[in-house]
Amino acid sequence: MAIEVPVARRTSLLRALWRHRSSKVGLILVGFTLFVALIGPFLVLGNASSDPNYQNLGQSLLGSSGSHWLGTDDLGRDELVRMVNGARYTLIMAVAAVTIAAVSGLIVGAVSGYAGGWVDLVIQRLVDIILSFPGFLLALALVAILGTGMTNLIIAVAVSAFPRFVRVTRSGVLTVMQLPYVEAARSQGLPPLRILRKHVVPNALGALIVQTPLEIGSAVLTGAGLGFLGLGVAEPTPEWGAMLGDGRDLLFTNPTLVTYPGIAIFIAILGFNLLGDGIRDVLDPRHSTSR
Amino acid sequence: MMRYTLTRIGSVIPTVLGAATVAFLLLRLIPGDPARISAGPTATPEQVEHLRVQLGLDRPWWEQYLDFMKNLFTGSLGTSTRSGNSVAAEIGTRLPFTIQLAFWAMLIAIVVGCALGIVGALYRGRAIDFIFSAVSVIGVSAPVFWIGLMMIVLFSVKLGWFPASGAATPASVVLPAVALSLFAIGFISRQTRSAMIDALSMDAVRTARAKGMSGVNVIGKQALRNALVPVITVVGLQFGQMLGGSILTESVFGWPGIGQLLVNSINNRDYPVVQGVVFVVAVLLILVNLATDLLYSAIDPRVRHGN
């Protein structure tokens, strides 16, 4: 499946996505999450509790009120402030991990598809081995070994997403390689790296572009899952998964401490999934899910 | 057929050996001294040394590796540093619970997912198709640990229909299985829907309709049979997702499977158990993928000739 994205069409891609029903909702949800991550922490400034880690034990486990819109947690920290600050950790983690996975997957996949032969064979066997572990299990095992913290979390999530990018790039490259203009470039004796960089990779990118938002959604899910198990970023960072995991002990008395971070994670993942579906439909109508 | 089957079975061997190597490497990738970290902050130097010998870390790495692989062939996965039990035995008592959970979740996902997908395809573009598509995208987007906790609040605390945790009664499996199935329902229903749409536009189906075969017959005999072929692959792919998801589901519902064993072992820094679970899950997934591929090639001859 090679999907071409010529330069002239890039601006109209956004317009096409906005016209597409599900990706419009996706754009809105992703835009909202981005907005909260960028601007949100400044909007909730103003009182002492605008520090996400400001504790006030006299004010613990309050319900919704004018001063604490979503109430407070067991340490008297403002739930809304923590959620708004948490958006950054989740997005930075997911975007960084997927960027690393996509760039390294692109390079390895392109080399594998272009070189063929034993290079391709060795790379594909290694990818098979990584894929023989469920993605979440692999990320979990890596965090368990490397230790918790943002950097290790990004590495773990990136490693589990990496093989899928290799596969997607490789199959894109294999398709493009059969096209006449690549053969023409080869027969003219252009150096392989130049052919790869100028002709093959730009035209094999389509599949990668489709894959990326879906992988970001999946990275949010993995990161939040690890946070939920207490293996994400260290306390007291207001990461959504970790907040949900903390709130779990108070599930029967204060279910909102689980509900709100869960909704935040859900909205972010839903947004990226809808956006990914939309991009796939717009770029490759054969796989349309909505029409 | 025979040749494809044998080649495909043969291709499993390097992957299993690779998975074993990854499991071996896990302990060696620990930054710092694995024995020191595994023993915990309060351990005496003697305890650390004892653990180092027990984990085999006092010997050269290639000797450790050969030993590790040799033990795998005899079915030994080492000894838990926490309980002193054999890792194989610990996994053996937990694995049936995980398989039971995954079985029910998969069954629910296949039945509900296929039903949603088929109905969506038949009523393509109508309100019911839109609703089912929305359900499927929500299914793949809602984190299982969140939905699971919400289900506990609603069905255990408020309504009291099902136990919130553990595996004491047969009803205990209901909530975790449903929670775990949601992602796969979303995934399977989308694939079924698009496969069904393709199948409905096939010449054979159109001919059958033109010949006056009734709707039920056409859908049941022609379209469905063709539509379900790609769905088999999806079910195979979803199994891996499910094994990953069961780690979180077991943690939410206190289900005593290998997912919970893994999380407990990570928290106890019981690395032989972590390695064992990682390896066993990988082997399970490799075998399911093998079964899926063989089943697929038995149904669709193009696969074995294409490769």
From TrEMBL, chain A:
Q: How does it sit in the membrane?
A: Multi-pass membrane protein
Q: Which GO terms describe its cellular component?
A: plasma membrane
GO BP terms, alphabetized? transmembrane transport
TM ranges are: 25-45, 89-115, 136-162, 257-276
ABC transmembrane type-1 domain span:
87-276
* Compartment(s): Cell membrane
- InterPro entries per the UniProt record, alphabetical: BP-dependent_transpt_permease, MetI-like, MetI-like_sf
Keywords tagged on the record:
Cell membrane, Membrane, Transmembrane, Transmembrane helix, Transport
The answer, when asked if Transmembrane helix is one of the entry's keywords, is yes
| Record Pfam families | BPD_transp_1 (PF00528)
CDD domains in the record, alphabetically? TM_PBP2
Q: Which family does it belong to?
A: Belongs to the binding-protein-dependent transport system permease family.
Q: What is this protein called?
A: ABC transporter permease
Species name = Kineosporia babensis
Which lineage is the organism of this entry classified under, starting from the top rank?
Answer: Bacteria, Bacillati, Actinomycetota, Actinomycetes, Kineosporiales
UniProtKB/TrEMBL annotation, chain B:
Q: Which domain of life is it from?
A: Bacteria
Q: Name one Pfam family in it.
A: BPD_transp_1
Q: Does the record carry Transmembrane as a key word?
A: yes
The record gives the membrane topology as:
Multi-pass membrane protein
Q: Which residues cross the membrane?
A: 12-30, 101-123, 130-155, 167-188, 227-253, 273-296
Q: What is its main location?
A: membrane
All copies of domain ABC transmembrane type-1, residue ranges: 95-296
Q: Does the keyword Transmembrane helix apply?
A: yes
* Keyword entries, A-Z: Cell membrane, Membrane, Transmembrane, Transmembrane helix, Transport
Share an example GO biological-process annotation for this protein.
Answer: transmembrane transport
Any single Gene Ontology cellular-component annotation: plasma membrane
Q: Which InterPro entries match?
A: BPD_transp_1_N, MetI-like, MetI-like_sf
Gene3D superfamilies, per database record: MetI-like
Subcellular location per UniProt equals: Cell membrane
Q: Known CDD domains for this protein?
A: TM_PBP2 (cd06261)
Give the similarity note. Answer: Belongs to the binding-protein-dependent transport system permease family.
- Protein name as catalogued: ABC transporter permease
Q: Which organism is it from?
A: Kineosporia babensis
